[in-house]
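Example (one chain per record):
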Amino acid sequence: MSAMNQQTPSLRCAVLISGGGRTLKNLLDYKSAGRLTDVCFPLVVSSSPTAAGLQYAALCNADAKVVDRKEFDSDDAFSDAIYALIEQSQCNFIVMAGFMRKLIIRPEWENKVVNIHPSLIPSFCGTGFYGKKVHQAAIDYGVKVSGCTVHFVTNEVDNGPIILQKTVPVYSDDNADSLAARVLEVEFQALPEALELIAAGRVTVDGRKTNIINLD
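Predicted structure:
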């Protein structure tokens, strides 16, 4: 069993984005409200040069970089370019915030990369489950509860150790848009909460299971 960030509780996060940056902006809003005191965001990396979320990098004085997947012939080469930027910025943690490309997780980055998925993993996750497709699948299946999952990232899609989950009800008159909006509200709570726990050294990982340490 290994404790996360017990010796270095402060997280220097590289935030990876691909689109509008709502998740990044939410993290910055938490930061400006006095939360996430042990977390900073020195680097924002986008997989697209047109990602609207790049504008938020200026709000946290972060370097904004673009690593366009189209310019690389493999996931390995693409990942190498991203890691080079991360190492230059001296980040010790990675947050995937709507990042829609494959990042190869190197052994030294195991349990140092997090993602948030808009369902209760292991339901409605894996290859092909993203955006509204996730919520429509939940509605079509007839589940009564959905939600979001913050998890560590591995090289298998949506299969890393689960840090925390939050739930929302699914109503009979829901559509993908209405359910997505409800899930997004708890996503905006869950990811900052998970980062605070990790920064405080309260998350341990044992195989694919995590434990939240009570420091009281």
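Caption: The chain has four helices and ten strands.
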